[in-house]
Design brief:
Helices cover 27% and strands 29% of the residues. With 160 residues, the protein is of the alpha+beta class. Strands 1, 2, 3, 4, 5 and 6 form a six-stranded mixed beta sheet that branches.
């Protein structure tokens, strides 16, 4: 039986928006998972080992890749004083959501769509979940651009 694989999409808030920090040539930070640990702990430990300060971890998606289950987490970190060696930074751009089927996933999902989905979900959680609201208080303006998916799906504005 194949073990799940963990990956982190590392994000931080900059003056011009949300930034994505990633290893050169890759899109995410891979984490080893010890089944005796909660996967969130493995993600926190891996990101902290880069010299970054994770303060919010949210599992945002999963997929099957090369016969492995890959769990993807959005990880908000304090704005780094320095970028780790071998890492790059990009401004997060908006993306259309990947749409699947009622009984299965979309045929292809780009990481930008995973990030879009995750940020829309965080925009909702920041309104509904006290812990996320507190953790992402400084992100409220950046997240306000992301319409929480449950509200969009029902064709109404948040709070109405």
């Amino acid at each position: 039986m194949n073990e799940p694989s963990l990956e982190a999409v590392v994000l931080y808030l900059a003056d011009d928006g949300i930034r994505h920090l990633y290893p050169a040539g890759q899109q995410t930070v891979a984490a080893q998972w010890d089944p005796d640990l909660d996967p969130h702990e493995a993600i926190i430990d891996t990101v902290a080992e880069l010299g970054l300060g994770p303060f919010m971890v949210h599992s945002t998606s999963w997929r099957v890749e090369r016969k492995l289950i890959v769990l993807t987490f959005l990880v908000a970190v304090e704005r780094p004083e320095r970028i780790p060696n071998g890492y790059e930074v990009a401004l997060v751009a908006r993306a259309e959501l990947a749409r699947g089927y009622a009984t299965g996933p979309p045929p292809h999902v780009h990481l930008s769509q995973v990030v879009e989905h995750g940020l829309r979900h965080l925009a909702w959680l920041v309104r509904e979940d006290g812990a996320i609201h507190h953790a992402l208080a400084d992100w409220s303006r950046a997240l306000s651009e992301y319409e929480p998916e449950p509200f969009r799906a029902f064709g109404r504005e948040p709070g109405s």
